[in-house]
Design a protein that fits this description.
Helix content is 40%, strand content 7%. The protein is an alpha/beta fold. Helix 10 crosses helix 11 and helix 14 packs across helix 17.
């Protein structure tokens, strides 16, 4: 979908809801806009649109794991990028594009989602969301040069004065006094949102990551800051480099801070609960608990790794049973061909019996129910116009790990999301450079020729 045409289509849908929702028993003044991933990014775009500034059509917004485009291209740049992406299709006209198989067009990888046409977004929205980075190296005038060079250096370094009376940092302009466009915001992310790009990111060798970071940063100081912060060296590479700031966590925090600067009420959450079928809080794991309509893990009686009722569950020596050997265990595992014959409709979740040893499920019934009930209750409370939790003093709401739920202090949030690295390393580098690094790592090293 061409943007901002797609955003305008969404705006038209909101106008329809505003006009006709009363005929369905709804309240046009009590509409909650909700989105996840790319849909959440669209909500951020609507929050900072000119139309929302003059005529808001929703009362509050829920933004989950937004994959935000921090610097939408202008129409000229977007057209160039689109032409480059479509070049392999060898289509130079609309008629030729229409003749191409739709699945082929869907699989074209466009490097952008939104387009800044100078009309849809409000003026200065980039600086409002992502303030420009600060220079980490002060400008110093060489002593052996003339007065002209000295004056030039002083003018260039005025924002970095060494005066004992520090110059206050320039903040984005506060929106007009009317607060109709400052809809309350419930926003957060999953701890492993970057699981979407984990597979290509894992293909990087440690030495290649070091070389690539240095090539992108083009600065020993900048690249060293990233490498040291995430403990990356030529012989070790941590995958959480993409998890911590690549596509969700830090951009989400930037949206939170921008909203707070303008006086918007914000409720921040972190979702660290493992997905029912995976051992990590992957992208969209929160939706599994929120909607509670996804097929859940198998019960012991129907699991392809389960055993007959009259058999004791074998396990490794470190688990409850020590009577079985490794070979005996592997002999009981069902093959992939046998898995294809299992009727998935007969799967059921939960059982009174206990798994033993290695076959124990990632999330048990109690954990699942606790997190599910907590997230549903808070989301519904917010949609009804009430406070979902106490957000004073920087408090956040946590979901997980291992079924934990509740309000936590700003310090707990800072530790879970490694906020110190954001402030000391990522923020001085700037969103543009950080996202460029993240995108490169997420794309993987590419195929060898």
């Amino acid at each position: 979908m061409a943007y901002p045409a797609g955003l305008r289509d969404q705006r038209q849908a909101l106008e329809w809801v505003n006009r006709f929702i009363a005929d369905f028993g709804g309240d046009p003044t009590n509409v909650t806009l909700f989105g996840h991933s790319s849909g959440a990014a669209d909500i951020v775009a609507h929050l900072y649109s000119n139309a929302n500034l003059t005529c808001p059509l929703f009362a509050r917004a829920i933004v989950q794991s937004a994959i935000i485009e921090h610097n939408p291209p202008d129409p000229h740049s977007a057209g160039w990028q689109l032409s480059r992406a479509l070049a392999p299709l060898c289509a130079s006209s609309v008629a030729q594009l229409r003749a191409i198989d739709p699945e082929t067009l869907v699989n074209v990888n466009l490097p952008f989602r939104a387009v800044d046409d100078g009309v849809f977004f409000r003026k200065g929205f980039r600086d409002l969301l992502f303030p420009p980075s600060e220079s980490e190296e002060p400008i110093r005038a060489p002593l052996d040069r003339g007065l002209t060079s000295l004056r030039f250096a002083i003018r260039k370094a005025t924002s970095k004065s060494r005066s004992p009376h520090p110059v206050s940092k320039r903040l984005p302009a506060i929106p007009p006094t009317s607060t109709s466009d400052l809809q309350p915001l419930l926003i957060g992310d999953c701890a492993c949102d970057s699981s979407l790009w984990l597979q290509p990111a894992r293909q990087w060798a440690a030495s290649a990551v070091v070389r690539r970071l240095r090539a992108i940063c083009q600065s020993i100081t900048k690249s060293s800051a990233l490498l040291n912060a995430y403990e990356i060296g030529s012989h070790n590479f941590t995958e959480d480099l993409t998890d911590q700031f690549a596509r969700a966590s830090w951009p989400t925090e930037c949206v939170v801070q921008a909203s707070q600067r303008t006086g918007r009420q914000v409720w921040r959450y972190v979702f660290d609960q493992e997905g029912p079928t995976q051992g990590m809080p992957h992208h969209a794991a929160d939706l599994v608990y929120l909607f509670d309509n996804v097929p859940l893990p198998l019960s012991p009686s129907s699991s392809p790794t389960a055993f007959d009722d009259d058999e004791s569950l074998p396990s490794f020596p470190s688990s409850r049973s020590t009577s079985a050997g490794v070979g005996e265990i592997f002999n009981k595992i069902i093959t992939p061909d046998e898995l294809d014959l299992i009727d998935i409709d007969k799967f059921s979740y939960g059982s009174e019996s206990s798994f033993g040893g290695w076959a124990q499920p990632v999330v048990d019934e109690l954990m699942y129910a606790r997190v599910r009930d907590a997230i549903q209750e808070r989301w519904i409370t917010f949609a009804q116009g009430e406070r979902p939790w106490d957000n004073s003093c920087g408090k956040v709401y946590v979901f997980g790990p291992e079924g934990e739920t509740g309000e936590r202090s700003a310090g707990i949030f800072g530790g879970r999301r490694r906020q110190k690295i954001w402030e000391e390393v990522l923020k001085p580098l700037g969103m543009t450079l950080v996202q460029k690094v993240a995108q490169e790592l997420s794309n993987g090293p590419g195929l060898r020729r």
